[in-house]
Design goal:
The chain has 248 residues and is mainly β. A seven-stranded antiparallel β-sheet has the order 6-5-15-3-4-8-7. A six-stranded antiparallel beta barrel has the order 9-10-11-14-13-12.
Length: 248
């Protein structure tokens, strides 16, 4: 995961969570949005998260997870990794993975106006193990990426509310994971974190729209009492899977 600069499992959130208090509609992009400066170092082997976006073997992850990797694969079993073809997206921290392995895509909602304070659910493989995080939407930001490649893109900023019990430190490995709303629909992709501030940054919905088909499955309602169950089901069905990057 980029650090502003996606271990463990088993549920129980680390703090009690009251029902979210929704604020105003998320405002449009503004020159006054927070600027997040990120430096992307030279490529190295690592792991992240990917999720199915259509039923023809197409997946989505974060660009920085797979950019400049010699080999990229999706882990579909304990010892089985399926090699994929990578297409990086130049205007956002996104990449498309094409494979011959098909899964039912996650539903999405990329047009509804989001509200400050709404809850987001982050399902993936933080620190290389199954895990999840819950966040509250704070507002917009502008992520400036420098280094191995350059990008200037809009992101959404989230305040971390809770995470899988026993998961401490960086959320590296969660990069590329879907952000789901309370209805179980994709509304973003995890891109960066600011551990000291307890912030998570996700790719803004506008960058995702052209890569999703019109219909992509039925929503599965999520709430704070069952989000771990939902996450486990998505990983067990391999609709959310670990992605592996190998650099020689």
């Amino acid at each position: 995961m980029l650090v502003y600069s996606a271990q463990q499992s088993r549920r129980d959130v680390t703090m009690p969570l009251p029902p979210p208090e929704l604020g105003p509609i998320l405002p449009s992009q503004s020159p006054r949005d927070e600027r997040i400066i990120v430096t992307v170092d030279r490529p190295r082997s690592g792991v992240g998260t990917a999720f199915a976006i259509n039923d023809d073997g197409r997946w989505m992850t974060a660009r920085h997870v797979v950019d400049s990797c010699e080999n990229v694969g999706i882990k579909i079993g304990t010892r089985k990794i399926l090699r994929t073809k990578v297409t990086v997206i130049s205007d956002a921290d996104l990449a498309i993975l094409d494979s011959e392995w098909t899964r039912r895509p996650l539903p999405h909602d990329l047009n509804t106006q989001r509200r400050i304070g709404e809850t987001g659910y982050f399902f993936g493989f933080p620190q290389g193990n199954p895990g999840e995080v819950v966040g509250s939407l704070l507002g917009r930001g502008r992520m400036i990426i420098r280094g191995r490649y350059r990008s200037d893109e809009g992101v959404l900023a989230w305040s971390e509310l809770a995470r899988t019990r026993g998961l401490f430190g960086s959320l590296g490995g969660l990069s590329g994971s879907p952000v789901l709303d309370k209805d179980g629909e994709v509304i973003g992709v995890v891109s960066a974190e600011s551990p000291r501030r307890g912030r998570i940054y996700t790719v803004a919905p506008k960058y995702l729209r052209r890569y999703f088909e019109e219909a992509s499955g039925e929503p599965e309602n999520i709430d704070l009492d069952s989000y771990g169950v939902n996450a486990d089901k998505l990983r067990r069905d391999r609709r959310v899977a670990q992605v592996i990057c190998l650099v020689g």
